[in-house]
Write a structure and sequence with these properties.
Distance between the termini: 60 Å
Shape: globular
Strand order of the largest sheet: 11-10-12-13-15-14-21
Length: about 625
Amino acid sequence: MADQLSLDRVVIRFAGDSGDGMQLTGDRFTAETAAFGNDIATLPNFPAEIRAPHGTLHGVSSFQLHFANFDIVTPGDRPDVLVAMNPAALKANLKDLPKGGVIIVDTAEFTARNLKKIGWDSSPLDDGTLSNYSVHAMDLTGLASGAVEGFGLSRKDASRTKNMFALGLLSWLYSRPVEGTLRFLSEKFAGKPEIRDANIAAFKAGHAYGETTEAFEVNYTVAPAPVPAGRYRQVSGNVATAYGLITGAHKAGLQLFLGSYPITPASDILHELSRRKDLGVMTFQAEDEIAAVGAALGASFAGSLGVTTTSGPGMALKAETIGLAVMTELPLVVVNVQRSGPSTGMPTKTEQADLLQAMYGRNGESPLPVLAAKSSTDCFDTALEACRIAVKYRTPVIMLSDGYLANGAEPWKLPDLAQIEPIEPAFATEANGTDKDGKDTFLPYKRDPETLARAWAIPGTPGLEHRIGGLEKSDLTGNISYDPDNHEFMTLTRREKLRGIARDIPDLEVDDPSGDARVLVLGWGSTYGPITAAARRVRLSGRKVALAHLRHLNPMPENLGEILHKYDKVVVPEMNLGQLAVVLQARYAKAITRYSRVRGLPISLTELEVDLCAEIDATTKEDN
């Protein structure tokens, strides 16, 4: 029997062909790990093609999980364990594995043809390529097929159970629970008893193989992480966004209407909300992006909370209607789950390059609030905040997420909904002014003096009929106006409404324990994880660094300028070519050090640690 060794943390990457079930395997290992009580962070990574050519490098699909007995904020840079189902998976991921790392590889796919397909003349299992690693080469396909031999499956279907065999083996190797996976398989394949029983048999066989073979001298355990008391569940960013939108609409007493067109990586929000008819959610899958946002804005005009979800290419198509929402001053939440561009770009890879598009990507002076989530679980809070601002200030709001947050998963402490403040839509119900003859009338563009939000009347309310559309509005009456002075007044008023939101958002908080740091690292969106993890390592080296992270990108917190000028150097890591850095430098006349990565992957915390140390040392050296 193998000895058991305790570890603080482990990073595992499952990799194989896009048809090998790596996402399902990783998701099930993650679910059991979350149930066990470890802190987790995941990074699914898969090709955009529905079924890329078998055995090719660009067809490799992987799923990385970082789990630990302490608080973690990234899925890890480099895996400790690589499970490779074929030569392409091994070659595509080997460069990320540190020396001494563990490789579990399926030998069944290492044929001369498959090796030649990826440019290998000989097998790395035999030619010394893997001499610096701990390699466990085994015929996973053959072992799985043997375990399910009695279930009447075809050879092809039998070989497909190899991912469950591998999952069982890794579950034993890292002392994961098995009950949840067995229950999952029973429910998922309940209508196909032979498939159900075969997958369960393969999973159990993999677990037993680890336990009985002498190939593994030890297995491992990672103790649960200490967390505040409460109920937790595993949640992805897209699901958390959906729940935040539902909660925002509920707190406002409004029906949630989603007008959406499927697009990677935002589609799961549509999928999740379409399941929530029990909560009063109405979903409409439109024929295109323009129809989707038009329907959402129409729903807001009718008194619902209109929402539309998309990614970068869809944002380009929605731009005119978002401008219409600025003009009509109606609440609308636009969720942009960013991906690599331009154009179609790399649909399944992450990026942060839509910030300037969100802030300025419309014709005319059309300002609107822009928010960004920092983590998968933070998508809930950010979506809820987007709903609050949209309803209170009668404005479209853009919420930025990205592919990394959308598909990644974390443990989420379920919020106490009773503690979330209500959102008051304050519909107009009666006349609010007088006409030129002194008679009571409804003035749709009469504003709340504090928020500058205009009156919102549900169509059909007697006496509150009014004109709406995309042509410039007269102050108060909302009638069409070409008057130059009125246009300037309305343009400035819309800008002042946006600026006023800054008084309604928290000041930016800075994490600077000693108060003596001279370098500030300022992030937004999903850079939160790599920045936080890198800063922890920098501080362990004895260096001082300050951290801050922006959720509200337009308007920005009122104290941001003061903070920026307090530090000698401000470093802004982004998964773009420096879009936030450009905005900050223009607004606050402060030199900003750009730290740009556009590789379709999260910023490497290891690289960021090294580069931050260099920036801090250079700043210190300038004094000497």
